[in-house]
Structures are given as structure tokens and as C-alpha cells.
Prior knowledge:
The chain is an alpha/beta fold. The chain has helices at residues 2-6, 47-64, 69-85, 87-98, 102-122, 161-173, 186-199, 213-222, 235-245, 270-282, 302-314, 334-349, 400-408, 423-432, and strands at residues 13-15, 18-20, 27-31, 38-43, 129-131, 139-146, 149-153, 176-180, 206-208, 226-232, 251-255, 260-264, 292-298, 353-356, 371-376, 391-397, 415-419, 437-440, 459-460, 473-480.
Amino acid sequence: MLQKTSHFMKQANLINGEWVQADSGQTIDVINPATGLKIGTVPKAGRNETRRAIEAAEEAFKSWKKTSALERSKLLRKLHDAILDNQDALAELLTIEQGKSLTESRGEIASSAAYVLWFAEEARRTYGDVVPSPWADRRIIVNREPVGVIAAITPWNFPSSMLSRKIGPALAAGCTAVVKPASQTPYSGLAWGALCEEVGIPKGVVNIVTGSAGEIGDELCTNPLVKKITFTGSTEVGKILIEKSASTVKKVSMELGGNAPFLVFDDADLDRAVQGAITAKYRNSGQTCVCTNRFFVQAGIYEEFVQKLAEASKQLKVGSGLEDGVQQGPLIDEKAVEKVEEFIADAISNGGRVVAGGKRHELGGSFFQPTVIADATTGMKFMKEEIFGPVAPVFKFETEEEAIKLANDTEFGLAAYFYTGDLGRAFRVMEGLKYGMVGVNEGLITTPEAPFGGVKESGLGREGGHQGIDDYLDTKYVCIGGLGL
Ligand code: ADP
């Protein structure tokens, strides 16, 4: 089975076009979460390897920034095609190291390709301005230029597509990159190196290092050659990176934690809401930053919603992502399972009612039952902390104002969802929610055409949309005088 994936399963780092091991020769084991067995190893690189990767990116930047937008666009289109041509192999690799079902993995790889295509197109539209001048003999031109070397740090839950939103705009803008994938799922990140080589992206333009997060992160944040840090991961680590980057005043883009509310009003289409709830909760076993963390349901339909959600969640097929028809794979590791158990124990001790699941799955390992907990209250841990697992706590509310207040009662502000059949309410609630993204009668809203990102402690900057390339460009104002006009 590994035959298909083996071409992309690189057990080495990519620095300046060479596949290399760590200076120390040390490695990190990569584990398949569905079996608990080792898949292979990756180098445990640190500060020195990272510095060399940065220097290679800086050297490559000198010529890469001079390529035309059309040239870069064509290369990115080739990259898009290469990703899709190898969709099955890349999806299999993703499932083996991450655990999600093959259907979800194929979807993630398709999404990676779609972001690359989007930025292939955006590469040609990084327009500047010619501004009407207040002086008769001077002209004002505003140019946009690539920022230089960028550093990207990505998490284990979407190890392929989180990189496409960073490598895509970086290359489109004319930047070069040093990438650090998560240690749990490094192969989908390293596969980008193989893909870039295959389509002829010059050496040093994309460099990939795996290993000690602290050491690599430190070098990326403090090395003056790096002009921008883009990170997807926890708010906790995001704050550390912002602080460290302050010493060299880098641009920062941060896609951090969420605490997504999902509001269902009495006037909603209940079956549609339940269907949306299943997608917004159990996708990737609940391990996404836009997964619903808190369901708020209006009193009139509360019991019916709880019952329907419980029934639907019990139907989900749990198993190894490689098996046909599986909808929910394992959690990433034992620690994740223990955290989910803590949330459930806390809820039960505070009066929560388990109406579906609630326990480890009979498959063992890090498999967990899709869970629904009714009678959730604001004193429970769910209210404040991100669950990152297949647990759906359902709170009850009476009025629209109360629902908005509860939804906003968090330091996070990434995604929010609500279901209503009333147009006026749709606008009132949409405008009342302090979130970067809102799904109205929709539970899955991510697409390359739209700006993904959060407000409050959920982050800075946007990925996708026409905004997604902005942070990779510097603005340069040029005043041309003495024109003798
Ligand atoms: P998650 O909870 O999703 O694992 P993390 O924020 O812990 O999120 O990790 C996301 C990415 O950040 C991973 O690539 C991880 O290795 C990296 N990381 C973790 N700690 C640090 C750190 N101190 N400095 C730089 N990167 C880090």
C-alpha cells in the first residue's frame, strides 16, 4: 500500500534543492494514529539547519523576485496540475499520518490544488496605483513588491492545505519560503518539496525543515533575513511567535484557535441544521479550528434538535481512514483522547447529559465515539476552551439577544454558524457576531475565493480571497519629481 505514496514520502529535509538529514543525524518517529505503528522517520533539525534554509531562500529570492508574474503563474498552474495528478497518492499519505478518512484526505488535497490555482491567478493581479498628484510636476506611483523570505509553520490537522494557503501566495507574490510542518504529520509537508521539484520550481525557493519546534521557530522568528512569519496553530504558540518576531519587526499572519458557536433558532430548517451540525462538528474528528465548539439551540426546538443530532452522530462510521465508508478516523494521539475525556467528565460532573457516545471507541487506540452532550451550561469547560475532538455540547437559549451574547462570550473570533428562516434575523445575527467568518444556514464555508481568518485572539491576516496575497507584498510609494511639466 505504501508503494503509491512512497515517491512523496520523503524522510529528509529539503534545503537549497538537496534532500538532507539533520546535522546531528537524529530523527523523529512518525506514527500512524490508526494503528499506533511507526511509518518512518524525519530529521530532527534545529537552529543551524534552519539558518542554512533561510540563507538558501535569501539567495534564491534574488532571482525568483525577478521572474515575471506570468512565469510564476504558469509554474503554479503546473503545481496545481501535479497535485491533482497525484491526488490519490497524496491523500493516502495524508490518511496514513493524520488519520482522517480517505474521502476527507482527497478533499483536502483537492483544496490544496484549488488554493494554488487561485494564487496562480492572483499572481497576475497584484496591481499597484497611479495616484492623482497634488503637484503639477510630480507623479505618484504605488508599487507592490514581494516582502522577501517568508517562514511558514503549520499544524497537523490539515498538513497539506494549510501549506497551500501559504506557499501559494508566497510564490505568487515572488517570495521564497522556509517551511516547518508539524512533527506529527511531516510527510504531507515534505511532499510539497517533491511536487515543487517535479514542476521545476528553482532550488532554494521552497525549503522544508522538520524537527525541534522551539529551535526552528526561534531561528525563523529572530533571523533578520526572514521578513514574514505565517503560522496556523494554537493561540498559545501564536502569541509566542508574535512576541519573538517583535525583535526584528516582521510581518505576521496568524490563524489561531477558535471556539465556534453554532446557533439554531426556532424558525430554522431543522433537518438542514442537523446536517450542517454534523459537518461542522465531526469533520476531521472535530479537529479543526472552525469546528463547532458550542451548539446553542432555542428552547422551542431544543429537545428535537438534540435527539436528531444524537441519532445522526450515532450513524457515523468510525474506523481506519483507509477503510471504505469510514467517516470518522482516530484522534491524532492519546493526549487528544485524554483531553476529550476531561471535557466529558467535567460536563457530567456539572449536570451534562450524554445522549450519544461519551466513551473511547471499541476499536481502541485513539478512536473515540461521536458524542453529544445535552444540558450544557456556561460553567462547563466547553464554554472557554477548544475541544478539538468529536464532542458536541448543546446549550439552550430563549432569546436572540441572549444567543448573540453567549456566542460572543469568548476571547476567540474565528468561525460562527447560525440557522434561521427569517431574513431580518439573519442580518441582525450576522451583524451581531464578532467573528471573522459566518456561515448562515451553512456548516462548511471554506473556499479559496473567500478570505479565511479570525478576529480577537483568533488571529491576524487573511488566507484566500484577493486579501490572501496582501501580507506577502510590501507597498512602495514612488514620487517622481522634476518632470518640468
Ligand atoms: P496544535 O495544538 O494544533 O498542535 P501548535 O500550536 O502546538 O498547535 O502547533 C502548530 C505548529 O507550531 C506545529 O508545527 C508545532 O510544531 C509548532 N510549534 C509548537 N511550539 C512552537 C514554538 N514554541 N515555536 C515555534 N513553533 C512551534
